[in-house]
Amino acid sequence: MSPREKTSKFDGNSHSKADSGESLVRLQKVLADAGIASRRGSEELISEGRVSVDGVQVTELGTKINPLISKVEVDGEAINQSVTKSYLAFYKPIGVISAMSDPQGKPNLGDYFRDRNERLFHVGRLDRESEGLILLTNDGDLAHRATHPSYGLKKKYLVEIKGLFGKSQIAALLEGVELEDGLARALEVTTVREIEPKHYWVEVTIHEGRFHIVRRMFDYLEVEVLRLIRTDFGPINIGEIKSGRWRALSQPEIEKMFNALSLKR
C-alpha cells in the first residue's frame, strides 16, 4: 500500500512518551538531513502525503520523531538516514538554469553532476544569464539556513557595466534604491577597473537574494549590465574554479559556513 493510501494519523506523542525531548527531531529536518530535499521541499513532501513514519502517513508539519528508531519512507521507499554529507562549489556557466533538472531539456545544474550518487540540491539561485559561484549539497539544514533572509549571508558579485557611473551612483547603491518589490541596498561598492569611459568592472556586495536584484539595481540607475559573476557566497570564495567545473569545499570552508549559519556538526 502506498503512503497516499494510508489514512491513519501518525501520533507523535507515542514517541515522546518513550523518548526524551532531545531525541525527537522534526520530520522535515530528518528528510533534509537524509538528502531527500531541502527543508522547504521536505515540507511540501509531507503536505502532499508522500511521507510515512513506521507505516503511517504523516501530513502534519512540525511532527517530531526519533530518527534512531523510526522507519521513514517517501513514496513507499525507505530513506537512508546515514548519508555522507557533500558540500560542493560550482562555477555555473552562462546559459545554465539553476535547477537540478528541466522538463524542457534546458541546460541545468544537474547535467554536471549525473555521475554522483547522492541527491544534490542547489543553495540559492543565479539567473540564466549570470555566472559564477553556486553551492550544492545534500545537507538540507545548511541549504535552508544559507538561503534564509534572517541569516543574511553576504554575496559578492563582479559586474561589468556600461553607462554613467561615479560617486553619485555608488552613493545611491549604498543608500538604497527603491525597486518594485521594496528597497534594495548594497553593503559595499568598489570600482575595480575602468576599461574605457563609461565602461567599468565593479564589485558589489549584498546580503539579499531577491530575483535579479543586482541587475535591477543597476537598471534603476540606467546602467547596463554586460556581465555578472558571483564570486563569494558567505565565507566561500570561487577561487580558481573554471566555468563548468566544481570542487569539494575544504574542511576549514565547511567550518566557516557552519559558524556563519550557527549550525552544529
How would you describe this structure to a colleague?
This protein has 265 residues and is of the alpha+beta class. The protein folds into three domains: 3-78, Roll (Structural Genomics Hypothetical 15.5 Kd Protein In mrcA-pckA Intergenic Region, Chain A); 87-150 and 236-260, 2-Layer Sandwich (Alpha-Beta Plaits), CATH 3.30.70.580; 154-233, Pseudouridine synthase (2-Layer Sandwich), CATH 3.30.2350.10. Helix content is 21%, strand content 29%. The chain contains seven helices and 17 strands. The chain has helices at 13-18, 27-33, 39-47, 140-146, 167-175, 213-220, 251-260; strands at residues 25-26, 51-53, 56-58, 64-65, 72-74, 77-78, 87-92, 121-123, 131-137, 155-162, 177-179, 182-184, 188-196, 199-206, 224-233, 236-237, 246-248. The strands form four sheets. Strands 7, 8, 9, 10, 13, 14, 15, 16 and 17 form a nine-stranded mixed sheet that branches. Helix 2 (27-33) crosses helix 3. The longest helix is centred in the C-terminal third of the chain and has 10 residues, at 251-260. The radius of gyration is 22 Å and the shape is elongated.
